[in-house]
């Protein structure tokens, strides 16, 4: 009965809005009638969005995914470099209810991961609405529902979806972070973000400055080195570098086991001792460690330690140089904060990404990383990678199933309803 009343109120409110639009002289944008989605609307068809849709389907709940790109996993498809492999073993990166193929290596390649995403969508019959850019999402308190507006195509044709639950799955890496460096407009060589970097082939024989010493910066520097470029790495802050494997096991997997028995600080001390034995004192190369341990730093600030895949060996031999922070750029020259200066042919910004949720999600916030108010949820914002996204997806599906009150009421109206078979 409660669901019926809610739906009737919603329909009456839509009719009222339609009446206002007809008489609004300034209503110039032609928009199709709102589409009522009986299940959750998920924004983003990357791993997080697919995981959420699959978990909901396992609970018997259909959903609709809206994706701005024309494919699944667009971030992995278009904004990653060719040599990229998963930094963690595949068992910690698989999505719910479907492991990676046994034939895949422990650290699947970029293309293997993309193949896995497609197979995952096919297996659960997930068919996102592609090329739909969400421009706004507002909770309408009058009708108690979410109003999600999208644009599509060159003409920016608008569509409005109305739903009871909204799941944000665009992730923390939706938009590039491009720092403002004095003299950027003056520098004559190319300056590109790692999202545009594919391989070091085009930089063979060139002096390239990589800005940022996270996992991407370290790996891009190694890739440049392997393609006979001459990379230098800008390291402004302290950084934890850990071996990717210890005792023949993944460092991450080993940490997961140890944390079941020991507190974080004890495991951190173990990691630092082993890293010193296996990698040596990284400070002698200009890579100073934070005072806080790697796991505690991750928990407190979300800063991920670097898992070394061979970069440190090249730094040790001098093939990759370590530089301090940039003071300013000249035509071909880079001046550093320590007073040194050097000429470079190109600059690559390994400065990370940020969320774009604030640009379209209005007047709402997500607490505890996965749940907000009024039927708002988020997947992949807990800074725990693909494993965290899978945990979020299962939790959200369970919560929506608990709250779900299906209605069998059918109302004739001038508004489109998206039948479950169309989701």
Automatic annotation (TrEMBL):
Belongs to the FMO family. InterPro entries: Auxin_biosynth/cation_transpt, FAD/NAD-bd_sf, Flavin_mOase-like. Pathway: Plant hormone metabolism; auxin biosynthesis. It catalyses: indole-3-pyruvate + NADPH + O2 + H(+) = (indol-3-yl)acetate + CO2 + NADP(+) + H2O. It is an enzyme of class 1 (oxidoreductase). The keyword Oxidoreductase applies. Its EC number is 1.-.-.-. One of its GO terms (biological process) is auxin biosynthetic process. Keywords: Auxin biosynthesis, FAD, Flavoprotein, Monooxygenase, NADP, Oxidoreductase. Its cofactor is FAD. GO terms for molecular function: flavin adenine dinucleotide binding; indole-3-pyruvate monooxygenase activity; N,N-dimethylaniline monooxygenase activity; NADP binding. This is Flavin-containing monooxygenase. The keyword Phosphoprotein does not apply. It holds the Pfam family FMO-like.
